Amino acid sequence: MGLDRHETLRLRAIIRASIATSLIYLAIAYVAPLSVHAGPAPAPDFVAVGSPRELKGAPGIFERSFIATVGTSPFDKIGLHRLDRGSTPPAAAFRHAMLVVLYLPGTYMNGETTIEDPHYSFQVYLAEHGIDVWSFDYRTHFIPPTSTQGELGELAGWTSDIFESDIDKAVQFIRGQTGSDRIFVAGFSCGGGFAYLYAAMHPDRVKGLIVMDGSIPNGPFVPVASKPGQFATDVGGAHLTYDKRNALLKMVIENPDQSAPIAKYKTARENLERVLYEAGGVFGGHGGLANPQGGFSDATILAQLLIGYDRYWPAVQDYETPDSPSVIAALKAAKIPIVAFGSANIGPKWIAKIQSASKSTGVDPHKAKFYKLEGWGHLDVLAGTKSEQAVFAKALLFIVLNNPQLLSPD
Fold it and tell me: N or C of the chain: less Cβ packing under 10 Å?
């Protein structure tokens, strides 16, 4: 399911060539700065936050964070996290202008690096292979988890169009920082839907799409009317509340073999595995959310991912259809290269929807790749035991193959 021998050899050769070329450009830049097109001016509303943080799980990779204010409410903020080598921003060399990726996380997720192991982190894996990776924080990341529904009335206006506008602000900043007019946009789950929406709205800014278990929204996610006064959905459920959820995740992270909080399970690990495997609703209840029992993920890794989730998500997005016929038409006209991955455990309708979306950009078939992941659950695509070879490596190959500058002879 991973790269075949031909793909592996080709990827290694391209990476070696690109790194060698990059070092030459960097040397020239330090000796005699080049006059190159720097792209648009940096967006003035993003500010650096804190100091660069070196990842313990990936020595030499640093995370730098930025925040922008996009409204008058305390919640009206968005963020970015940049992963790259070195404790200072990269030099303005050609390499960083060519290999830039913006990652859009899924529902309840944010851009912070909670998993530092490149075997289980898409962003860290790409950064270790020379990609300039940026991850996005939606406005939901800035809502205190102690907030009540009565304090979240503002979320009634947080539509997909508002979030797409926020993403564009981030892209403008990234373009200014990197000098890259066009970047790759990656998305997981609903982040994949936002990637499609953004590509349709701004095709001139997108070099390629990497969609991980996401599709184009084509109807209300929840086919019922919203409840009066409910402005946000909660990551916690009726039985596994937000506080109980976090308590279980902390137990698995600290010691997965300690006694489970629910008596019918022997260990905290088993407790979390059953909760994830049996998750119902849109996930189907048979490993649709995650399949650690099938060996496709590890509960301790998933706990690290899940504990970083934000609590709330705007309920209005469950009842809208952001991709109108005009948006679909614009996406088809964009002709943007794409690679998409779909987990099969949610069910045949889910995988068919993802595969259909992967054909929507109007690009030549040889520039559109789709991979069906049999036996995989939703979270297994992003942080599973087989993600590195079956997803991350294929995404990296897609990136370098769609950078003609890297394919020229030495």
Answer: C
